[in-house]
Amino acid sequence: MSDTKNVSQGITRNLTNYGDPGFAAYLRRSFARSMGYSLDSLSRPIIGIATSPSGFNNCHRSMPDLVEAVKRGVLKRGGLPIEFPTISLGEVFLSPTSMMFRNLMSMDVEEMLKAQPIDACVVIGGCDKTVPAQLMGIASANIPSIELVTGPMLAMPFEGEQLGACTDCRRFWGKYRAGEISDSSINEIEGKLATTAGSCAVMGTASTMACITEVLGMSLPGSAAIPAVHADRLRLAEACGERAMEMAVSGAPLPQDIITSKAIENALRVLLAISGSTNAVVHLAAIAGRRGIELSLDEINRISDETPVLVNLKPTGEHYMQDLFAAGGLTAVLHELKHQLHLDCLTVTGETLGDWLSEKPKWVDRDVVREFNNPYQKEGGLIALFGTLAPTGAILKRAAADADLFERTGRAVVFESLEDLSDRIDSDDLDVSPNDFLLLKNAGPKSKSCMPEAGYLPIPKKLAAKGVKDMVRISDARMSGTAFGTVVLHVSPDAASGGNLAFVQNGDEIRLSVKDKKLDLLISEQELNLRKQGWKMPETPDRGYARLYYETVTQAPLGCDFDFLRSK
Ligand code: FES
Q1: How far is the CA of 304 from the centre of ligand 1 (A)?
Q2: Which of 108, 122, 304, 509 is 20 to 30 A from 130 via CA?
């Protein structure tokens, strides 16, 4: 751990380069004073507050209150809080997908942390891609920082049941497609799914990343599950401001002291125990890559087989994030996993994970957080699959899938692109039966759609109408963390970069074995090589961010980070 004392440099940190540091400091103070700061204020440590509110980001609408509370904490401890904006990624407001812009936001966060006069920072985010982008930026900038998540929405009662984004969004949409509910019902439900500030209410990607942030040690203990609208979240924000001041004065701990290979393994274990989002595998690989740590998919399988699912939350189980909060939060989960965790990992508090878990929680709701010896499911939520269809890996969320579909060979019903999928999936003459495997190509990181959450292929309407609820679905796309189904994702290498997925044809047989962790295309090597002849990489855009994206984005096992942003 870094051991530096009184390292705050305040307003004179990172001076603008005029070739005359004295002039640069004088000019900066002058312009800062033009904003009304006193010289006394400008002599204090500066705590940056990185914010990302936006009219296009519903999950961040509580941010102004959080910023005020962080400022209170900083001022209490004698620092100067200064907020600044970064870009904001509202999951459903970005085209083709927020995933395309995660790395852009990470660069924004990294560069602003490094360029501005900030002694320590509280970085606030909540929506799916925001928190991973911020953690990637923080890991690369390597200045003392605390992540503060906006917190989950509340699920609300509606006609005798709880509704919360977004597992219920998909459940009702599936019913609507199957003709089980009317136009007027779906319109009414649309207005009831997401009704408070905060991120999605289930163990989707945002909640998963909040839990991962906490176990990584990058947020204050006990923070992940506090609902966005709960007063405890404002108290937490105030505590973040106070703690950031201490970090500014000591200059420690640094992200490099916290995000270590042991901490990444802890995060992976928690991801499996909470049956978290498949997206988190990609994000965790990217965060680890920023610190030069490789996330091995084989390692996921090892950890998955020895880590039970302990949390009974949607989409795997029944409850919502507010129930996890009431049940004891992530701390209760970590206590059950304590014997499997690296307890010497450091957290932003300056203490270790072991220090944090030294006292047992007073009360835990065992309907929501199970004991290790009485788990919700015996094995971890996610596994990696390998084979001729996915030479460098694919991901399946087995905890949210139908086990009856785990060991089988199926006939491929191929969709060449997202456009092809939407054109034909509901066509009456689509040749498909419930035992077939739906397969989507060209939705991976190198595709023009930039790996959207399209891997949850809809059940063809004519099968849905007959009551088919799940089928094996395979793609190089991602899937929302809130979805449920036997959905194989992140097939890599992806089709757009010439992976074997690109050469699957209608009617080919594919073998899925969850037991053996295999995904094989059952055609001969000779036939595969024949099909590969003459294949050309799709053309890439010739300018702007899109060009940077396509030229440098890596495959899913490397986190889809840009190759030049990964640490050597
Ligand atoms: Fe932001 Fe779901 S839309 S977390």
Answers
A1: 26
A2: 304
